[in-house]
Every structure is written in C-alpha cells, then in structure tokens.
C-alpha cells in the first residue's frame, strides 16, 4: 500500500539510508546498565531495541508492552548529546506506536509523571522499514544527558511492539565525573573566580 506524506508539519524526513546508517550511532553512547523500560513484557527486552543501524530490521529482538499499550523508556547517556533525529521501527500493524512524547533530563520517570507537559510530542506513522526520520527541536534537545521516551498509544492494538529505536546526533563527554580542577581549566567561567585559589593550592601541593 502506498504511504501518504501529506502531513501539515514537516516532522520527518527521508534521507539516503546508507548515509543515515552512519549518523544513527548514539545507541553506543547509551548507559545500557541503567536504561529502564517500564511495562515491558520481558524484563530487559527494552534495551534490545537500541541497536546498530544494520540490525534495525531484526525481528528476533523487540519489546512488547505488557498490561496495556504504554511503554516508557528512561535513557541515560554516557555524556551529553545533541539530539538531531529519531527513527521508530515496528511492524505494519495496529501494534505500531502512534505517538511519542519526549522529556529531557528527567531521570527515573514513571507513569505517574507522564502527566507533565512533554518537551516535545510527535505524531508517529507506521514504519516497518526504519526509514521515517523525526526531527527533535534542536534548541530544546541540544544538551541532553538523559532522555525519556513515552509511547502512550498505538493504532488500536492491545499491546505495543517496537523493534528499533534509532537516535541521531552528536555526543560530547560529560563533566559530571571529571576532576574539579580539570573541569575549571577546560571550561573557564567568570562566575567561578572565587574558586581559583583552590586551583592554586592544589597545584602547589602537587
């Protein structure tokens, strides 16, 4: 069946798949040990949908919602990312998610928190090939250490299935775990002048 692209908003794009594959590499920057997926049928299955581009059509690994159609992902990164693109691949059935709500830097969200206004809400279209690209708001998602993805609804099925979530963007090391002296030297800030004497003392001791 031909796919209609007559939407009012230009919220997704079709690019060269080979070029996209090189750009969709942020899965490698996810802190998988601390990634959470709420309402997954099989524990740990939510982590499997963040995989290399070339595995996006793999139907052996997927996540399926349990009690209802909702899925909630809490995704911590190993640094700060600038999010530039999202791809959601499922199957061409009513179990495909129909909406995505994004929250920036709100760790450990639960379904009790999703009444909060999202930083962005995106209407999804059925995509079994992993080719529809959705554009996050660049200014809003320019410095993200934690991303929450809430899928509240699908196209009418009892449960939601997702095979692949692709994230495109830029990654930079976070400064949360760095030595304080290194952080101030790498990112000088006039507001930190009161701490400069600590730098001097530390260096004298060395």
Commentary on this structure:
The chain has 206 residues and is α+β, with helices and mostly antiparallel strands. The protein has helices spanning 17-23, 180-186, 196-205, and strands spanning 12-13, 36-38, 63-64, 71-89, 99-104, 120-123, 133-134, 144-151, 161-162, 164-173. It has one domain (17-173): Jelly Rolls (Sandwich), CATH 2.60.120. The chain is built from 3 helices and 10 strands. The strands form 3 sheets. Strands 2, 4, 5, 6, 8 and 10 form a 6-stranded antiparallel beta sheet that branches. Strands 1-7 form a two-stranded antiparallel sheet. Mean pLDDT is 84; it is low at 1-10, 177-185 and 193-206.
CATH class: Mainly Beta
CATH architecture: Sandwich
Integer tally of domains: 1
Mean pLDDT: 84
Radius of gyration: 20 Å
> Helical segment tally?
3
Fraction of residues in helix: 10-25%
Order of helices and strands: EHEEEEEEEEEHH
**Broad shape:** globular
How large a portion of the residues is in β-strands, by DSSP E?
25-35%
Task: Assign the CATH topology.
Answer: Jelly Rolls
Secondary structure elements and pairings:
Elements lengths: L11 E2 L3 H7 L12 E3 L24 E2 L6 E19 L9 E6 L15 E4 L9 E2 L9 E8 L9 E2 L1 E10 L6 H7 L9 H10 L1
Antiparallel strand pairs: 1-7, 2-4, 3-9, 4-8, 4-10, 5-6, 5-8
List keywords for this structure.
alpha+beta, disordered C terminus, PITH1-like, Jelly Rolls, PITH_dom_sf, about 210 residues, PITH domain-containing protein, two-stranded antiparallel sheet, disordered N terminus
């Amino acid at each position: 069946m031909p796919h209609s692209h007559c939407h009012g908003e230009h919220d997704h794009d079709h690019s060269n798949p080979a070029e996209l594959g090189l750009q969709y590499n942020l899965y490698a920057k996810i802190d998988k040990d601390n990634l959470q997926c709420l309402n997954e049928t099989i524990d740990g299955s939510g982590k499997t949908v963040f995989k290399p581009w070339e595995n996006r059509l793999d139907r052996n690994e997927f996540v399926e919602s349990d009690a209802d159609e909702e899925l909630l992902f809490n995704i911590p990164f190993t640094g700060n990312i600038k999010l530039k693109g999202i791809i959601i691949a499922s199957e061409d059935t009513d179990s495909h998610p129909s909406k995505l709500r994004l929250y920036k830097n709100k760790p450990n969200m639960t379904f009790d928190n999703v009444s909060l206004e999202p930083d962005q809400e995106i209407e999804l279209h059925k995509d079994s090939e992993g080719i529809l690209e959705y554009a996050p708001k660049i200014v809003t998602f320019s410095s993200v250490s934690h991303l929450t993805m809430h899928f509240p609804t699908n196209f009418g099925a009892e449960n939601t299935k997702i095979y692949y979530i692709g994230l495109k963007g830029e990654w930079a090391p976070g400064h949360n775990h760095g030595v304080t002296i290194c952080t101030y030297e790498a990112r000088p800030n006039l507001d930190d002048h009161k701490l400069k004497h600590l730098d001097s003392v530390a260096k004298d001791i060395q």
